[in-house]
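2024-03-11 09:14:02 INFO worker-7 job=invfold-0412 stage=load source=structure_tokens
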């Protein structure tokens, strides 16, 4: 709890002006010298709401060795921590700002239109590509097994409808029948699946601003609409969309 409170203090705008390392050192000295009230005042509002002064004093009193170990570890940080802020815009996109040189600056992700570093960023990039009919870009968001026709994606979102009689995907010369291409996605999403895909995309866009994306290891999911789910998969370090 003490360490958690400390991390919250580092991000508190109240102390940004004096520098994160200054706050860390002040917090460490207060703990080492038994000035518990002063250490508590360095916590963020959120941290103090989650832990009263009495509870903080009790934690310090009952765990003296842990407290001193924490204080020693943070007394001399190797470098200033990176102070960041996350802003959610109306369409659900999250932009990260970094405090450096006394000013807030936008992170590089603000210009990465088709990023895949987080599930939310991947979904926003996918939706942007869909709106612009960039089926070549949409391929980036498809797991390898699905592109190779091995994934058995539920609902057939990736390319179902680009088929010939008998239900086998139509393949251009030189390509395996199961290989998914931008052309197949276009044929399907602007043809047999158009209404279905458009309905799902609109429901996802409506849910995204307030939706919660749950991450578990290399998988993630987001509920939307009346029982819909976007399933994500992290592959080769990039988040992709397995199902929607």
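2024-03-11 09:14:09 INFO worker-7 stage=emit residues=244
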């Amino acid at each position: 709890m003490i360490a958690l409170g400390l991390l919250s203090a580092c991000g508190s705008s109240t102390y940004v002006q004096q520098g994160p390392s200054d706050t860390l050192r002040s917090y460490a000295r207060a703990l080492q010298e038994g000035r518990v009230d002063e250490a508590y005042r360095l916590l963020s509002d959120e941290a103090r709401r989650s832990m009263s002064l009495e509870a903080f004093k009790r934690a310090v009193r009952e765990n003296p060795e842990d407290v001193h170990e924490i204080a020693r570890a943070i007394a001399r940080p190797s470098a200033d921590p990176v102070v960041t802020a996350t802003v959610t815009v109306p369409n659900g996109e999250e932009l990260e700002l970094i405090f450096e040189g006394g000013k807030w600056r936008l992170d590089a992700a603000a210009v990465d239109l088709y990023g895949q570093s987080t599930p939310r960023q991947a979904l926003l990039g996918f939706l942007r590509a869909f709106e612009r009919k960039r089926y070549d870009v949409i391929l980036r968001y498809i797991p390898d097994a699905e592109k190779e026709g091995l994934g058995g994606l539920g609902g057939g979102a990736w390319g179902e409808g680009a088929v010939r009689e008998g239900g086998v995907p139509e393949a251009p010369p030189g390509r395996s029948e199961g290989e998914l291409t931008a052309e197949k996605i276009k044929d399907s999403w602007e043809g047999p699946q158009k209404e279905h895909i458009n309905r799902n995309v609109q429901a996802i866009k409506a849910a995204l601003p307030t939706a919660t994306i749950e991450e578990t290891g290399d998988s993630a999911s987001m509920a939307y609409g009346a029982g819909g789910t976007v399933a994500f998969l992290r592959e080769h370090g990039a988040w992709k969309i397995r199902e929607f």
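2024-03-11 09:14:09 INFO worker-7 stage=report msg="The beta strands are 83-88, 94-100, 103-106, 213-216, 219-224, 228-235, 238-243."
2024-03-11 09:14:10 INFO worker-7 job finished
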